[in-house]
Design goal:
Length: about 120
C-alpha cells in the first residue's frame, strides 16, 4: 500500500465532529502519515491506534497553518482535511485563506466538512 501524507485540522467548534469522523474512519488512516495542528493532534490521537503515525505541529494561530502550507508548497502533502467553522470569524483568518490558497494552487484535495471528507476518504 502506498504511503499517503495527510493533514487533519479543525477549528475549535468543529473538533467534536472531526473526532467522530476520525474514529469512524480510523482504519483508512493505517497507511497514512498524519500532520495535525496543536489541539487537533492531541484529540485525534486519542481515537486512533497507538501506532498511528502523527506529527503534531504548532497551533494554527501560532504557525501551524503555515507549517501545513509549507508541506503543501514542498509537495510533501497529499490531502488536506480541514473542518472549518463557517459561522465564526477566526483571529488568524489570513492564515486560513493562505492555506486554502496554497492547497488550491498545488492541486491538493481539500475536505472542509464531513460530507466532503467522506467523499475523499472513499
Amino acid at each position: 500500500m502506498t504511503h499517503i501524507n495527510i493533514a487533519i485540522v479543525a477549528h475549535d467548534r468543529m473538533k467534536p465532529s472531526l473526532v467522530e469522523w476520525v474514529r469512524d474512519n480510523a482504519d483508512a488512516f493505517s497507511h497514512c502519515h498524519i500532520f495535525s495542528t496543536g489541539t487537533t493532534a492531541s484529540v485525534i490521537s486519542q481515537v486512533l491506534p497507538k501506532d498511528q503515525s502523527i506529527t503534531a505541529l504548532k497551533s494554527g494561530p501560532l504557525g501551524g497553518d503555515q507549517q501545513i502550507g509549507s508541506l503543501i508548497s514542498d509537495k510533501a502533502l497529499d490531502v488536506l482535511f480541514f473542518f472549518q467553522d463557517a459561522m465564526a470569524q477566526q483571529a488568524h483568518d489570513a492564515d486560513i485563506k493562505a492555506l486554502v490558497r496554497l492547497a488550491t494552487l498545488y492541486e491538493i484535495p481539500i475536505a472542509c466538512n464531513r460530507a466532503s471528507a467522506d467523499f475523499l476518504i472513499t
